[in-house]
Design brief:
Lipocalin, six-stranded antiparallel sheet, 2 helices
Length: 294
């Protein structure tokens, strides 16, 4: 049973999620949230209709917030009216958590979602954020997806997510000496020590929080390469990414891992290319890239 106030957008979401490709074209698959982890997500958009989905494990189990905005252009008012609705779907059965209307003067609408063990909090607004709800929350017991269903023709004005470490995640750390030996003996074109050169970052969508030095070596028994970077220990390096060969010479698909182990490269179609001893890492859906040299 789906409440009447929810039927339109919940059924639409269910249709999108049950499509052949599983996720609709006008969709940004933001991240995989590790089980036990916490997350904060912020989206601001001028689109008239969009949906933020969290705790998505399959098309029958997820939570979502739908934003629908109308502009009243008449003699009496020039306000935007946004209807904001939140639902929770378990085993295909949806329940309405809240629904409210919000009138505002400015175009665009923001949603901020904070999840932590025991609590979930939503704030909304056109500029000044107000509390929209605070509920008891049990984190998803398995890895889940965070998804934004959004018109492709209108890019979100602000869009980011941050995650805290899952206590179950252990990063892969490798001896610096071992990596240096692999670099010395490797004959692949991408292997080596790469130093930060420059960046071109859309700061509304991405943050490069350090000027990386990357150590790239072949991954044993695969055609892939591991991408490592420095740790606090002078004797150890941590795996930061993985390069998988594409169909083109000196071009690779890029997996890029957060400190919590989430791949934020593959969902954003990240790739790496080598030309004239310049390594370029591109995140096209984030309109961002940075370069390294050796």
């Amino acid at each position: 049973m789906i409440p009447k106030t929810l039927s339109a957008f919940v059924l639409t979401v269910l249709f999108w999620l049950s499509a052949k490709a599983d996720i609709p074209k006008d969709t940004i698959d933001i991240a995989v949230i590790p089980s036990g982890g916490t997350a904060e997500t912020h989206v601001r958009s001028k689109a008239s209709d969009w949906t933020l989905i969290w705790d998505y494990t399959d098309r029958n189990n997820f939570s979502c917030a739908n934003v629908t905005t109308h502009y009243a252009d008449n003699d009496y008012t020039n306000l935007y009216t946004t209807t904001f609705t939140v639902s929770h779907t378990v085993n295909g059965q949806s329940a309405n958590l809240m629904s409210r209307q919000y009138s505002h003067d400015l175009p665009g609408f923001s949603v901020n979602l904070k999840r932590s063990p025991g609590d979930i909090k939503l704030t909304i607004g056109d500029g000044t954020m107000i509390d929209a709800g605070d509920w008891a929350y049990t984190p998803c017991p398995v890895d889940s997806r965070l998804i934004l269903i959004h018109p492709a023709r209108v890019a979100p004005e602000q869009f980011y997510t941050t995650m805290s470490a899952s206590p179950l995640y252990k990063p892969l750390v490798i001896s610096r000496h071992e990596i240096q030996q692999l670099i010395m003996t490797s004959k692949t074109s991408v292997s080596g020590i790469w130093q930060y050169l420059d960046r071109d970052i859309d700061t509304s969508r991405a943050i490069l929080n350090t000027n990386y030095t990357l150590y790239i070596v072949p991954e044993k028994d695969t055609p892939n390469h591991l991408v490592l970077t420095d740790t606090d220990s002078p004797s150890q390096l941590i795996v930061k990414g993985r390069l998988t060969p594409s169909n083109f010479s000196n071009n690779y698909n890029l997996a890029w891992y957060t400190p919590e182990g989430t791949d934020v490269g593959t969902p954003y179609e990240a790739n790496a290319t080598i030309a004239d001893n310049i390594l370029t890492l591109r995140f096209p859906l984030l309109n961002s890239s940075f370069r390294l040299s050796r």
